[in-house]
Write a sequence for this structure.
């Protein structure tokens, strides 16, 4: 039996020509049978009686009806079962058979005991809208009605296809946010839904890619062949190539495109190729991940400023553009991105330049996702703590007294 706390996995069943068994011929069957018939299912109704409407479906040959009670073996060879009698013991027996035979089964009397749920369904312009809210069917129906009405009256824009954009090829640089797919902007989600090609970073909201139609080409930016090009140059060329081929291209980036995201480099490459570009800001992990971990980057009487720096090169690396001595003199919050493997060196530099060794530090791995975890330390201990806890990228580091403001993660 599935764990009751887990969400249902949505899927569209293709039942044409396949055996479906409906047990019980009352009002539930009357509501559900037309959709099963429309799907082309080979429907067998098992029930000693039926409503006049169900009886009429049997009379016209839309379904087969065996006028008797359920018996063991009725679900043999079935792909899907709807159990809807008025007798709980019969429903339990049939449900147990479905479980043994691995038949997806809907229980009208007890949704928690079923292996499948029937969504609130609507159809408009070739689109099937199916909504599940678990144990709240009225809300499912309300959401279904709102979506269907929006598609009908145009307030919900969802174009099925699109020609070459006016004015030539275009690309959208979309900030996907810190990882939780719900934290992408409305505009970013809309452009993603309209894309032909999506070039995605591994730090982007990966769950959103599951929502894309099958025709959308999804390209992992980390796996683009570099050949004689450097990685970023190869990504730029891929953006230009697909846009010039007449495709609607979305460059899906984690966080915000312009916060350590090389978004401007990509925009400049597109501009040089004569390709228009739309930039969609995203929620930066620099503020959202601390918030998700219960840490405000500013707080009255504690921190009046916060500074965001990249830690991808160490303080003693000649390539570093960060003035660590100046940062050590600040009293506000320091947020370090891409600094997990350098945090020991960063902490030593800050202490060496005057930041107290007991300054609190929080390291948040995979913030805003289901795998989020927080490790607390001080500047004196963070290097060893990160190694001991095996903290891995992506992780964000918060340094400052705000770490002590809220010890428990936000909900």
């Amino acid at each position: 039996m599935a764990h009751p706390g887990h969400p249902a996995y949505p899927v569209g069943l293709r039942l044409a020509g396949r055996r479906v068994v409906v047990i019980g011929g009352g009002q539930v069957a009357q509501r559900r049978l037309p959709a099963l018939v429309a799907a082309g299912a080979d429907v067998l109704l098992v029930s000693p009686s039926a409503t006049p409407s169900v009886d009429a479906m049997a009379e016209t040959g839309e379904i087969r009806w065996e006028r008797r009670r359920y018996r063991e073996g009725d679900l043999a060879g079935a792909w899907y079962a709807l159990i809807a009698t008025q007798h709980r013991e019969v429903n339990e027996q049939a449900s147990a058979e479905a479980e043994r035979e691995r038949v997806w089964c809907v229980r009208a009397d007890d949704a928690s005991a079923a292996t499948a749920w029937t969504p609130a369904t609507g159809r408009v312009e070739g689109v099937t809208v199916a909504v599940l809210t678990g144990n709240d069917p009225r809300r499912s129906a309300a959401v279904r009605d709102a979506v269907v009405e929006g598609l009908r009256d145009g307030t919900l824009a969802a174009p099925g296809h699109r020609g070459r954009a006016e004015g030539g090829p275009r690309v959208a640089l979309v900030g996907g946010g810190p990882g939780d797919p719900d934290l992408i902007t409305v505009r970013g989600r809309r452009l993603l839904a309209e894309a032909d090609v999506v070039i995605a970073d591994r730090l982007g909201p990966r769950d959103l890619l599951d929502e894309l139609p099958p025709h959308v080409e999804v390209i992992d930016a980390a796996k683009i062949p570099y050949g004689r090009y450097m990685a970023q140059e190869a990504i730029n060329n891929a953006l230009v190539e697909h846009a010039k081929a007449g495709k609607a291209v979305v460059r899906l980036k984690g966080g915000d495109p312009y916060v350590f995201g090389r978004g401007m480099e990509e925009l400049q490459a597109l501009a040089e190729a004569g390709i228009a570009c739309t930039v969609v800001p995203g929620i930066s992990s620099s503020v959202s991940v601390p918030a998700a971990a219960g840490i405000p980057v500013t707080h009255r009487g504690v921190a009046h400023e916060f500074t965001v720096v990249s830690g991808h090169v160490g303080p003693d690396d000649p390539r570093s553009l960060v003035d660590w001595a100046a940062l050590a003199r600040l009293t506000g919050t320091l947020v370090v991105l891409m600094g997990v493997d350098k945090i020991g060196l960063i902490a030593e530099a800050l202490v060496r330049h005057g930041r107290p060794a007991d300054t609190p530090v929080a390291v948040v791995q995979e913030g805003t996702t289901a795998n989020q975890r927080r490790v607390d330390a001080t500047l004196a201990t963070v290097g060893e703590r990160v190694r001991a806890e095996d903290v891995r990228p992506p992780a964000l580091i918060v340094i400052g007294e705000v770490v002590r403001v809220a010890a428990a993660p936000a909900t």
Remarks:
- The first helix runs from residue 27 to 38.
- The chain has a mean pLDDT of 90.
